[in-house]
Amino acid sequence: MSTGSTRSTSSIRSTRPAGAAESAPDTPAAPVLQARDVHRAFGTTQALRGATVTVNRGEILAIMGPSGSGKSTLLHCLAGIYKPDKGEIWFDGTRVDTLGEAKRTELRRDSFGFVFQFGQLVPELTALDNIALPLLLAKMSRKQAYAQAAPWLERLELSERGTHRTGELSGGQAQRVALARAMVHRPRVLFADEPTGSLDTLTGENVMNLLVSTARAEGTTVVLVTHDARVAAYADREVVVRDGRALTTPGSAVA
Ligand SMILES: Nc1ncnc2c1ncn2[C@@H]1O[C@H](COP(=O)(O)OP(=O)(O)OP(=O)(O)O)[C@@H](O)[C@H]1O
Ligand SMILES: [Mg+2]
């Protein structure tokens, strides 16, 4: 026991899963990614109507909210996939939403990683091929790409599955391959949209534990979209999206 210790206690919430926030940043919050008053419509549907969110360096931020509230649209705007109709997106001191398509593609390829609900792997390729793919697309040599990809099989408990086509994998295995593929180029920000949405609870916990531990180990900032409070419990902080606007939950830091 630490009775008498001068070490200050951490602010880990008791509901947080074991190990989920052990290395949460304790330095003053440093914004790395921001949406400022973002509006985005699809036809007559106003998906975002003034969403403002700040993501701090190294944190795991959960974006929560009911179905249709605008969570995925916000993630796509933060990641430079969608251009907002109004408002601004900033990443690391650069305004992203005014960049051209080629620059935004380059930014996503070099600095961001993505995991979606359904892995979106190439089913005909093996697990290892899928993990190496982003490196090959970034023009890395085959030898170097496979050397960098291979350790991720073990890190994500896929050692037995490296040569299997991903079309033959279970849902949990496929999501772990998707996570490895998203992390293999060491992105600054990992965007995960319902990464456990198609998995049972136990398999989802395994994927979340691996997602959190690899992000912590790599110092990766995570933007995690979920409507599941058990998944959001892995995050350092939550914002709730309702009717296209982002709200900070009581007790959490500045949004
Ligand atoms: N590509 C699109 N075309 C047309 N409408 C869209 C498109 N994407 C989102 N919308 C609409 O925008 C609104 C917000 O959608 P969004 O996908 O951001 O919600 P969400 O919070 O992620 O929901 P869910 O939890 O169901 O994934 C919804 O009304 C949705 O129907
Ligand atoms: Mg969604």
List the helices and strands and how they pair.
Blueprint: E1 31-42, E2 45-56, E3 60-64, H1 71-78, E4 86-91, E5 94-95, H2 101-111, E6 112-115, H3 127-137, H4 142-155, H5 171-183, E7 189-193, H6 201-218, E8 221-225, H7 229-232, E9 237-242, E10 245-248
Parallel strand pairs: 3-8, 3-9, 6-7, 7-8
Antiparallel strand pairs: 1-2, 1-4, 4-5, 9-10
Helix pairs in contact: 3-4, 3-5, 5-6
This protein binds adenosine-5'-triphosphate and magnesium ion.
Magnesium ion is lined by residues 71-72, 193.
Structural class by SSE content: alpha/beta
- Helical amount: 25-40%
Radius of gyration over all CA atoms, rounded = 18 Å
Mean pLDDT: 88
Kindly report how far apart the N and C termini lie.
36 Å
Domain module count: 1
Q: In the CATH hierarchy, what is the superfamily?
A: P-loop containing nucleotide triphosphate hydrolases
Strand content: 15-25%
> What low-confidence regions span 5 or more consecutive residues with pLDDT below 50?
1-25, 250-255
Description:
By secondary structure, the chain is of the alpha/beta class. It has one domain: P-loop containing nucleotide triphosphate hydrolases (Rossmann fold), CATH 3.40.50.300. The protein has helices at residues 71-78, 101-111, 127-137, 142-155, 171-183, 201-218, 229-232; strands at 31-42, 45-56, 60-64, 86-91, 94-95, 112-115, 189-193, 221-225, 237-242, 245-248. The chain starts with 30 loop residues before the first strand and ends in a 7-residue tail after the last strand. Residues 1-25 and 250-255 have low confidence and may be disordered. The chain binds adenosine-5'-triphosphate and magnesium ion.
